[in-house]
Amino acid sequence: MRVALPLSPGCYRLTAAAPVAVRVAVVTAAGPVPLRLEAGEALFTSAEPVTGFDVWPTDRPAAAATLMVARAAPWSTLAPDWPLGPLRQPPRAGAEGAWPRHRPSTPAGWMRGIRIAEAEGVRVTGDRFDVGETGLLRLTFDPPIGPGTVEMSGEFTDDAGKVAWVEPLVLADDAVSPRARLGTLRRVRGALYRARFSLASPTAALLLRPRETSGSVVVRRLDVVRLGPMRRAVRLADAVRAKAAWPAAVPRQPGRALATGRPASPQSAPVTAGPSVTLITATRDAPGHLERFLETLAASRPGPQETILVDNGTTDARARTLLEEAERAGHKVLSDARPFNFAALNNLAARTAQGDVLVFANNDIEFSRPGWLAALAAVAARPEVGVAGARLLYPDGRVQHAGLVLAGEARVRHAERFLPARCAGFGGRQRAETSVVGVTGALMAIRRSLFERLGGFNADRFGVLFNDVDLCLKAHAAGFTNLLVPAAEAVHHESATIGQRLTGGLFERGGEIWQYERAVEGHRFRQDWAGLLDGDPFYPAEFDPLDAGFRRRV
User: Fold this and answer.
1) What pTM does this model have?
2) Residue 250 in domain
3) What CA–CA distance (Å, rounded) separates 174 from 393?
């Protein structure tokens, strides 16, 4: 629903009389820009006149909601705010929280030349940091560091001495967005985090975000090393020698990531009898993708007993014609024109589904193997299985998806991405059913009863990007096994529904709003699954999860 409410440029506070399951967007000349509503409240600054607000339910029947807008004092924060076209929003709820800006003493364990100039949302007691959700430290360096390459390292633990799951961001002093970072400290071993970054000019100050989620962190040490050309050359030589010492091929020894032994053949699954299947896909415009999707789905043997297409505000004439033809052919078409929310659109269809197994598919999938559905549904119907995922290929024949790998923080990698399709993969995992921590929502299957038990996709917290991984982790936490099913193979023309990659458009994939939503959902993902993200239980510890190609760490 669009509410007309003209406002002049300025800073405003929007509040809900009671917590409600709605999303809100500010409408300006640039279009509707989403607000992050935390605990029923949102702060925003608009550089342009506001014409009104868009309000829509996230994933539940709409309820009466009272929203109020009032002028607010401009916020003051060390953290760069998010510029979204004409709008700016505080980087996190609580930027003006219980612990305002102050000047704490620098912990004794830090190297000389580094000190805390200012802190926000952080209470420092010795080397222990109680961190609010916007915890930031402004560090100064004497003498100034740079220009050149600089390496920062630190040891971050909790009060018990265990690894603190953190993602310290090193931001330039004049950064206007958290995306404009100089480096991110990554965990390399134990509690040791390290990052290397380049400075174009000398700087006396950096911003350090010691923790993305609230809690306590003990910083055992924090060091900065200036790397000259000779130091870099020596390290490069060490890396070359280390690589030369690797074995010619990784031995295919038994391990947690190896295949379970079921052959990846369409004949291994029944092609006649089996569970009833409802196939669900959200679609908007993209007539070329939709036409290919429907044509190749019709060639699947057997096909789904029920197909539900969720029309997310299609305006393209050719695509609307295809939807009308699909409805006449017996497919169910639901209309929901809300701003793109993959989780809510699929939940809407799941509530009306009749099949025992739900298969979720993107509209940019091409079903290249006729028996894919029987193979996928047969695995998903087994009582010990949580979510079953297909092996997906790029149109050029390389692997796009063969299971997901948790690579620390909110980083999720596709295992053996870009591997030629003919390769068997590590331990033969590209040819047999394999246990994985998660699979992509581009083509996945789950029993309807289990989907309902797990609460479906979380449309409130993960509307766009992390909902499929979140569902898989919920199934894993409930004791079920998520499986890659190579017999269910298809071609994925990646991310057609939400826009093409590498675009700078404000509302398109890769644009400011897309990156903003990615950062917000990534933060929530870290909050919900922090204890699992740095230790994928199905990826061998001796391999680097960031690479996800089953290659040994350097």
Assistant:
1) 0.79
2) no
3) 42
Number of domains making up the chain: 3
Q: For residue 519, what are the CA distances in angstroms to 32, 117, 317, 515?
A: 19, 27, 34, 6
Are 231 and 263 part of one and the same domain? no
Give ∠ CA 226-227-229 in degrees, rounded to 5: 145
Residue identified by tokens 């331990």 is 427
Task: Please indicate, yes or no, whether residues 219 and 274 belong to a single structural domain of this protein.
Answer: no
Q: Exposed (0-12), middle (13-18) or buried (19+): which is 89, by Cβ within 10 Å? A: buried
The candidate with the shortest Cα–Cα distance to 91, out of 99, 83, 102, is: 83
The answer for residues whose C-beta is within 8 angstroms of residue 4's C-beta and 6 or more apart is 51, 52
Is-contact 21 460, C-beta < 8 A?
yes
DSSP 440-479: -TTEEEEEHHHHHHTTSS-TTT-SSSSHHHHHHHHHHHTT
- The parent domain of residue 347 ranges over 259-495
Which amino acid type is present at position 265?
S
Spatial distance between the Cα atoms of 149 and 226, rounded to a whole number of angstroms: 6
Q: Is beta strand 306-311 parallel, antiparallel or unpaired with respect to 277-283?
A: parallel
Domain CATH for 137 = 2.60.120
Q: Please indicate, yes or no, if residue 253 is contained in any of the structural domains.
A: no
Contacts of 237 (CB under 8 A, 6+ apart): none
Give me the average pLDDT of each 10-residue run along the chain (554 residues). Answer: 90 80 85 81 91 82 76 85 84 55 85 88 85 82 87 89 82 78 82 87 86 77 78 44 37 41 45 80 93 95 95 93 95 89 94 97 94 96 97 94 90 94 94 96 97 95 92 97 97 62 58 78 86 88 87 71
Q: Distance between CA atoms of 4 and 66, rounded to whole angstroms?
A: 15
Contact status, residue 171 vs residue 181, Cβ threshold 8 Å? yes
